[in-house]
């Protein structure tokens, strides 16, 4: 029996006469059902092959770069166009003080139409481009030589000005790119309207802030009117992003270099359009990989998420890449109280975190949930995905706690927390809030020890405290990152990320190299820093390879271990977007601090606690353990056990087998020793 509203327009209740009859209704017998409309009776739909459904891409490129950054950018751009499918339509725009729109009609020659950057383009100038004789959007198979010529024509910035003081009309460049990627309002062919598959995509390659024209800010933060101008620029960029989204165009912003990019101004442009904002150290390998993955990731459009619950349950918060839909944008049902979310993009790399609350005590035996997602896929077919489930109600606290998945609970808590941590001061407050959350759980669901002020944490949630400890001291809430821009970008990525990526960004996965090229999975503790070993640490947006000093001195063995670690790292991030950077370094080097700061400092704990939480120590000889202990440098960061005791809570009993199974998804294709 089903008592939820359904897309088929029924009264909402159906009793099947038999199991065989029930199987004829997939929405009643399956947890997840997809409805796909591919008929040609819809206006604007033309069934065409996959090879013709490639969405156009326009590259908008900063031309105010110095020689070292420019060389890396050119290499990445040349590799990028070589990687594109032949049928991909590409446009190229450079911007500095002016906007240069490159014309592909000149074979093997870089030729551009130039527009002023100090103001928005006029309708007349845009019409002249779109309806003129130039070709500004061309398939790669017809324009590859001229694309290479255009990239090779880039020259280093000539004037002797600091990077932050160079005129960049970034906003105007994106304004010009949007009508270029749309083309004429409709291309008529044999009486049908042809539309590109999926979202069109503008990829902005920036090396500095927007400092000229619409959406710009002053060169210096000390400008007397900077706060007001920043606020105006932020609003302008957000409106531009909304207009791009309305035109089915995603704006991805890929930044690199050492110049402050003013993330707060540019981020609304990417967010409102459904795109991503990524920071890179330079325009090298990681930038080039992300450039390619940004262009090839499948993205649907016109997404709408509807959430329905039993009457006594309501949605209190949704975190993810969307915003509450306007009234009338969703299909309505009789007595329907669904929450509708307008999805800014529809991608497998993203997710929504939904928080629910009860209006009153639940007296029924079950509660029901239905999630309906409607969107256009890359082939412009209408897809309606319906997920329906029911959960039993219980009156046992222990049974309730056993049903909670530690990792899911940690990510839900993390997303709610990060939503409020907008700057470093907020992050400090949120760390304190996490401490209080742990204490509340222990007080309400744990038990106080006899003749002690310490509380026992509920054994059913034994993994949760350690996951939240990683969160409070890691890059999302801790002090690992050096600049507020980095934290802001990482926070935005995390709030929209899929569950698997979110889990890796909170709790790193630690793998130690063993003989024969195998890897052993270990807790992410600093006790893994053994001088004769190599360790891979996957922290979601960064992957680190740490080589012990003793191993590094063995030339043959160290080369083999490093090669195996690199192979593993590349396999771990093969399909991940954004592509993490891979950093390799030796024990004791300056870069090793990136690795050390992400591990739980357990070296100060008593030996019995170390062995209980890091069983691999039992395999070491007395000499090896002495050497390991002497290698650590004292600092004030508390270990996990010290932190728990500071909260008046006994650290939960370690359960590495449970933790290992939860982390297994990151290495399930690997042989374990």
TrEMBL record:
GO terms for cellular component: COPII vesicle coat; endoplasmic reticulum exit site; endoplasmic reticulum membrane. It comes from the Eukaryota. This is Protein transport protein SEC23. Pfam families: Sec23_BS, Sec23_helical, Sec23_trunk. The keyword Cytoplasm applies. It is found in: Cytoplasmic vesicle, COPII-coated vesicle membrane; Endoplasmic reticulum membrane. Belongs to the SEC23/SEC24 family. SEC23 subfamily. Residues 301-393 form the Sec23/Sec24 beta-sandwich domain. SUPFAM superfamilies: beta-sandwich domain of Sec23/24, C-terminal, gelsolin-like domain of Sec23/24, Helical domain of Sec23/24, vWA-like. InterPro entries: ADF-H/Gelsolin-like_dom_sf, Beta-sandwich_Sec23_24, Gelsolin-like_dom_sf, Sec23, Sec23/24_helical_dom, Sec23/24_helical_dom_sf, Sec23/24_trunk_dom, vWFA_dom_sf. GO terms for molecular function: GTPase activator activity; metal ion binding. Residues 58-284 form the Sec23/Sec24 trunk domain. Component of the coat protein complex II (COPII) which promotes the formation of transport vesicles from the endoplasmic reticulum (ER). The coat has two main functions, the physical deformation of the endoplasmic reticulum membrane into vesicles and the selection of cargo molecules. Residues 407-503 form the Sec23/Sec24 helical domain. It is a peripheral membrane protein. Its main location: membrane.
């Amino acid at each position: 029996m089903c008592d939820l509203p359904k897309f088929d327009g029924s009264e909402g209740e159906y009793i099947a006469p038999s199991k065989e009859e029930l199987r004829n209704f997939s929405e009643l017998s399956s947890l997840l059902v997809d409805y796909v409309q591919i008929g040609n009776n819809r206006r604007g739909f033309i069934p065409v092959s996959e090879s013709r459904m490639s969405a156009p891409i326009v590259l908008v490129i900063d031309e105010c770069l110095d020689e070292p950054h420019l060389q890396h950018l050119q290499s990445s751009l040349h590799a990028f166009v070589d990687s594109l499918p032949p049928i991909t339509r590409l446009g190229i725009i450079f911007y500095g003080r002016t906007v240069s729109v490159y014309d592909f009609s000149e074979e093997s020659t870089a030729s551009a139409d130039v527009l002023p950057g100090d103001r928005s383009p006029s309708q007349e100038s845009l019409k002249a481009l779109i309806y003129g004789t130039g070709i500004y959007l061309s398939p790669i198979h017809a324009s590859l030589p001229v694309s290479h010529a255009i990239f090779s024509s880039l020259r280093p910035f000539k004037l002797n000005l600091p990077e932050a003081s160079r005129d960049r009309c970034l906003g105007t460049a994106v304004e010009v790119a949007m009508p270029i990627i749309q083309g004429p309002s409709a291309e008529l062919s044999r009486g049908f309207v042809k539309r590109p598959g999926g979202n069109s995509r503008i990829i902005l390659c920036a090396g500095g802030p927007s400092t000229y024209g619409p959406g710009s800010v002053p060169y210096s933060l000390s400008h007397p009117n900077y706060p007001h101008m920043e606020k105006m620029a932020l609003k302008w960029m957000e409106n531009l992003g909304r207009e791009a989204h309305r035109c089915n165009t995603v704006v991805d912003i890929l930044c690199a270099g050492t110049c402050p990019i003013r993330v707060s101004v540019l981020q609304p442009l990417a967010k409102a359009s459904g795109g991503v904002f990524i920071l890179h150290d330079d325009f090298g390998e990681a930038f080039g990989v992300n450039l390619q993955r940004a262009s090839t990731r499948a993205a649907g459009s016109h997404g709408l998420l509807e959430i329905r619950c039993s009457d006594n349950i309501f949605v209190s918060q949704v975190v993810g890449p969307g915003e509450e839909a306007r009234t009338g944008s969703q299909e309505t049902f009789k007595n329907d109280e669904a929450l509708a979310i307008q999805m800014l993009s529809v991608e497998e790399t993203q997710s929504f975190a939904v928080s629910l609350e009860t209006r009153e005590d639940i007296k029924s035996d079950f509660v029901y949930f239905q999630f309906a997602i409607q969107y256009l896929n890359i082939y412009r077919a209408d897809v309606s995905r319906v997920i329906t489930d029911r959960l039993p109600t219980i009156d046992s606290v222990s049974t309730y706690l056993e049903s909670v998945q530690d990792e899911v609970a940690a990510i839900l808590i993390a997303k709610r927390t990060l939503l409020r941590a907008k700057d470093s001061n907020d992050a400090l407050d949120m760390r304190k809030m996490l401490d209080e959350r742990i204490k509340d759980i222990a007080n309400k669901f744990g038990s106080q020890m006899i003749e002690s002020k310490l509380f026992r944490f509920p054994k059913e949630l034994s993994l949760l405290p350690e996951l939240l400890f990683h969160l409070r001291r890691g890059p999302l809430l801790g002090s690992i990152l050096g600049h507020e821009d980095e934290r802001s970008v990482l926070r935005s990525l995390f709030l929209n990320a899929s569950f698997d990526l979110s889990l890796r960004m909170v709790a790193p996965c630690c793998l130690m190299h063993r003989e024969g090229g195998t890897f052993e999975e270990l807790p992410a503790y600093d006790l893994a820093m053994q001088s004769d070993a190599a360790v891979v640490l996957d922290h979601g947006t960064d992957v680190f390879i740490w080589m012990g000093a003793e191993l590094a001195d063995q030339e043959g063995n160290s080369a083999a271990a490093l090669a195996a670690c690199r192979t593993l790292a590349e396999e771990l991030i093969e399909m991940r977007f954004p592509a993490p950077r891979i950093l390799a370094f030796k024990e004791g080097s300056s870069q090793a601090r990136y690795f050390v700061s992400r591990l739980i400092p357990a070296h100060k704990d008593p030996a019995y606690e170390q062995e209980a939480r890091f069983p691999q120590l039992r395999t070491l000889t007395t000499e090896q353990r002495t050497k390991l202990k002497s290698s650590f440098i004292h600092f004030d960061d508390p270990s996990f056990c010290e932190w728990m005791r500071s909260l008046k809570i006994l650290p939960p009993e370690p359960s590495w087998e449970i933790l290992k199974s939860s982390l297994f998804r990151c290495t399930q294709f690997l042989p374990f020793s």
